[in-house]
Design goal:
By secondary structure, the chain is an alpha/beta fold. Helices cover about 45% and strands about 15% of the residues. Bound molecules: coenzyme A.
Length: about 270
């Protein structure tokens, strides 16, 4: 989906991607760059951002690094300003910075719960709030990276479920408030995605991975590129009347409940 009849979908657009040094967010940055967007990557770790920028440049993209923690509003606002100075007014925003560790509610301190809510929910608010004045309006698109935890309760994920539910409601509120200014705000809710830090933490052994896969109607985890393709669509003109949507990309995983458990139980055990 890199090009449609030779036309790059995001030519002339400027993007910022938080958490852009790795994982799903870097895959989205790559897809945006392939499609002609200039990319400002924001993240906590300068070395990771620099390596990602090198990779995008080697592939012919235009990219720059702007280190900041999304929990620190002033540092984040300065990073966003420097991305705008590097590339120009911002058309596309991906709020992807996230934190996760598997733990039961009784196994996490108030500070552990807060760390995830601060990165995922407050960090998304901070990014949207700080970027607004730098957006090219009308026509800007914001994508918040949510997760199926937002609407499917999961054990060991109370902090993430609460934070991502907040992210999706924030998406909808901002879509209402900023729609008249021509700013679209949508969420992408991936399920299990291969080769990500999140899944390394949630499915650390082949046995756990196999069990989780049984509950996914599509029979596998998503690839990062599949999430990037969805982000490309949502940020392009092809989606110009879509705002306030939570778009699920999970191979049917969140259709859970008894039906999926039955499906998993009925599958031959290999
Ligand atoms: N179980 C229980 N509590 C945990 C924990 C675990 N596995 N890992 C961290 N915590 C707690 C810490 O104990 C601390 O609480 P305390 O001060 O009461 O002891 C709190 O979380 C903050 O930990 P800290 O390491 O200082 O926070 P951080 O800001 O450096 O890290 C995290 C944030 C905790 C989310 C960390 O997992 C992280 O950096 N993740 C980023 C990568 C990632 O998760 N990617 C996947 C995204 S889906």
């Amino acid at each position: 989906m890199a090009e449609v009849f030779g036309q790059r979908l995001l030519s002339g657009k400027n993007a910022i991607v938080t958490g852009g040094g790795s994982g799903i967010n870097l895959a989205i940055a790559r897809r945006y760059a392939e499609n002609g967007a200039r990319i400002g990557l924001i993240g906590r770790t300068k070395e990771k951002l620099d390596a990602a920028v090198d990779e995008l440049r080697r592939a012919g993209g235009e990219a720059s690094a702007h280190p900041a923690d999304v929990r620190d509003y002033d540092a984040l606002a300065a990073a966003i300003k420097s991305a705008r100075e590097a590339h120009g007014e911002i058309d596309l925003v991906v709020c992807g910075a996230a934190g996760n560790f598997p733990a039961p509610a009784l196994g996490m301190s108030a500070n552990g719960f807060k760390a995830v809510v601060d990165i995922d929910l407050l960090g998304t608010f901070n990014t949207c709030r700080a970027v607004y004045e730098h957006l090219r309006r009308p026509g800007a698109s914001i994508i918040n990276i949510s997760a199926t935890q937002a609407f499917t309760p999961m054990p060991l994920q109370a902090h993430v479920c609460a934070a991502k539910a907040g992210v999706d409601m924030l998406t909808k509120c901002l879509a209402i408030e900023w729609g008249p200014q021509g700013v679209r705000v949508n969420s992408i809710a991936p399920g299990a995605v291969d080769e990500t830090e999140g899944m390394r933490r949630l499915a650390p052994t082949p046995e756990i991975r196999k069990q989780l896969t049984r509950a996914i109607p599509a029979g596998r985890f998503a690839t990062k590129d599949e999430i990037a393709d969805l982000a490309l669509f949502l940020s392009s003109d092809a989606a110009k009347f879509i705002t306030g949507a939570v778009v699920v990309c999970d191979g049917g995983q969140s259709l859970a409940g008894f039906g999926v458990s039955m499906m998993a139980a009925m599958q031959p055990r290999t």
